[in-house]
Amino acid sequence: METVVTKLQEWLALYGLKLVAAALILIIGRLAARALRALLKKALLKSRVDETLVAFITNLAYVGLMVFVIIAALGQLGVQTTSFIAVIGAAGLAVGLALQGSLANFAAGVLMIIFKPFKVGDYIEGGGTAGIVEDIGIFTCELKSPDNKKIIIPNAKLTGDNIVNYSAKDSRRLDLVAGVSYGDDLDKVRKVLEQILAEDDRILKDPAPTIGVLELGDSSVNFAVRPWVKTADYWDVLFATQEKMKKRFDAEGISIPFPQQDVHLYRTPETQA
């Protein structure tokens, strides 16, 4: 019995202080990790970082700190932590290789949330498609196409090419072409086009519309008609202006070459209607 008590005393003398130190490291380390997570969260929210990204970053930082604390506690107990660090490093490398596509999407999502090339509600073109942004996630973005289809695009694909944001600016320019016959009075055509634009209150006065001869085509003289409108009025003004041009040309006796090349939109990939 005395031998057991002696051995126990020796063990307590040898490991007791180490156990206490390891326990203190765990307790204090956990408190410190929580405090740092709270400070990081406060700083990120103050910088107006997206809440989804804030939660992910703060939780990731907390886990990383706790891993460091646990390794430090094990080292205090005399456990060789070199092997643990090597295992963690190897596991991280393996996970990184296995999830390299997802990590690329995550990195792209973080950049989009930070730099905000577009926001929910914007009409954009990117990743080989176009639509209204409905959700910006960490790994994917969701768009709604003009014909009401749900489109999910990986973030890495979206940021790997040009992004066209049609909603970013308050105003946009209509690029129209009006073709008339060579026998028509060009001054009269210009005056009619100016009247059509002046009659529509949705067409902005500043910048002023541009009207000019764009080219001498094979069968028509083509006028460039380029008014500016508010982005929200783009499609309504486009359709109305094209219809007015056709009707006014007919009323004024301005010839429209055949086949009809009278008025058409300079086509862009955007097809929202």
Spell out the blueprint of helices and strands:
Layout (H helix, E strand, L loop, with lengths): L1 H45 L4 H26 L5 H17 L1 H16 L7 E4 L2 E8 L3 E5 L5 E5 H5 L4 E2 L5 E3 L2 E5 L5 H13 L11 E7 L4 E6 L1 E3 L3 H19 L10 E3 L8
Antiparallel strand pairs: 1-2, 1-5, 2-3, 3-4, 6-10, 7-9, 7-11, 8-9
Q: What are the key terms here?
A:
Helix Hairpins; SH3 type barrels; Alpha-Beta Plaits; 52% helix; rod-shaped
How would you describe this protein?
This protein has helices at residues 2-46, 51-76, 82-98, 100-115, 155-159, 186-198, 234-252; strands at 123-126, 129-136, 140-144, 150-154, 164-165, 171-173, 176-180, 210-216, 221-226, 228-230, 263-265. It has 273 residues and is α+β, with helices and mostly antiparallel strands. The chain folds into three domains: 2-98, Orthogonal Bundle (Helix Hairpins), CATH 1.10.287; 117-165, SH3 type barrels, CATH 2.30.30.60; 171-265, Alpha-Beta Plaits, CATH 3.30.70. The strands form three sheets. A five-stranded antiparallel beta sheet has the order 4-3-2-1-5. The chain has a four-stranded antiparallel beta sheet with strand order 8-9-7-11, covered by helices on one side. Strand 3 and strand 4 (150-154) form a beta hairpin. Helix 1 (2-46) runs antiparallel to helix 2 (51-76) and helix 6 crosses helix 7 (234-252). The longest helix has 45 residues, at 2-46. The protein is rod-shaped and about 120 Å long. The relative contact order is 0.09.
